[in-house]
Amino acid sequence: MKRILSGMQPSGKLHLGNYFGALKNWVDLQDDFECFFFIADWHALSSLYENPRLIKDFSYEVAVDWLSAGLDPEKCTLFLQSKIPEHAELHLILSMMVPVPWLERNPTYKEKQDEVKKVDMSTYGFLGYPVLQTADIVLYRADLVPVGIDQAPHLELSREIVRRFHHLYKKNVFVEPDAKISSIPKLNGLDGRKMSKSYDNAIFLSDNEKEVAKKVKQMLTDPARARRDDPGDPEVCNLYPFHKIYSPQSMQDEVAEGCRSAKIGCGDCKNMLTETMLRNMRPIMERRSEITKKPKEVEEIIAEGTRKAQLVATSTLDRVKQAMKIK
């Protein structure tokens, strides 16, 4: 089996953008690959350094969301980044050899600064997060990293860092990771912008049925439909991408035709979407209800996964130090 590595920051509750952007794909991958998935709590410090006490609670919530969504600890390794000191140590080692211009050209560096207004993101730690990200990947000698097509260039920096290390120390220690491209549906938040906790426009995996229904009613629709009998265009409506994900093809066709001809109103469309969304989300909600009754089991799953991941990380860092002749 080829090995896959990916992680998520515990910077808040997971939402549908996180689920369809990564988590659902992880659930599918765990049957065919050796998967290591980690809670990236060190990375979360880049935006929560003023309130680090939140990270512990958020980490637990992420673990619950993962298990509720269908990640199976019998099939994949789930672990906590900060409990494995090799992440921080390899990050330090790699940071000594990565040119600053490599980091400054990272498009996410500017994008995140523009998106997050409440926290000063112009920090050394955030500038260097791709180096920590590289350490995360190469510690586990991962063959593949699942990303969307727009994120593939970000992985190239990790590949460059690996090549630089091998060139400097004349020994191939790491696996040069490849991107495993996954199709990520475009899914905006309630207001039509990117779904984000920062924008307060998200539907969370932890929302109950009433909360989901309330949020669907708040979603923006085609602005051309100012009145009930105005025809619209489903392709510019914020609801239709959700129908494409959750609704059967017959309902998608009904919604599209009804929108263009004004046979159905936006309220009708929202009611239909609420019904089909909840039908699909209930299994996750039900698993979450059971999982939250057993917090100690959740903690033990992450602890056991961390012990397993530690063995791999320790072995890799030993090889790094041997190559550098510092051990």
Task: Kindly provide the radius of gyration, computed on alpha-carbon positions and rounded to a whole number of angstroms.
Answer: 22 Å
Beta-strand percentage? 5-15%
What structural category do the secondary elements indicate? Answer: mainly alpha
Enumerate how many helices there are, as a single number. 14
Question: What is the arithmetic mean of pLDDT?
Answer: 94
Q: How far from one another are the termini?
A: 31 Å
Helix content: 55-70%
Strand order of the largest sheet: 1-2-3
Shape: elongated
* Low-pLDDT segments: none
| Major sheet attributes | 3 strands, parallel
The ordered string of helix (H) and strand (E) elements is EHEHHEHHHHHEHEHHHHH
Tell me the number of strands: 5
Could you explain the architecture of this structure?
The strands form two sheets. A three-stranded parallel sheet has the order 1-2-3. It has a two-stranded parallel sheet with strand order 4-5. Helix 3 (53-69) crosses helix 13, helix 4 (86-95) packs parallel to helix 14 and helix 8 packs across helix 9. Helices cover 56% and strands 8% of the residues. The two termini are 31 Å apart. The protein has 14 helices and five strands. By secondary structure, it is mainly α.
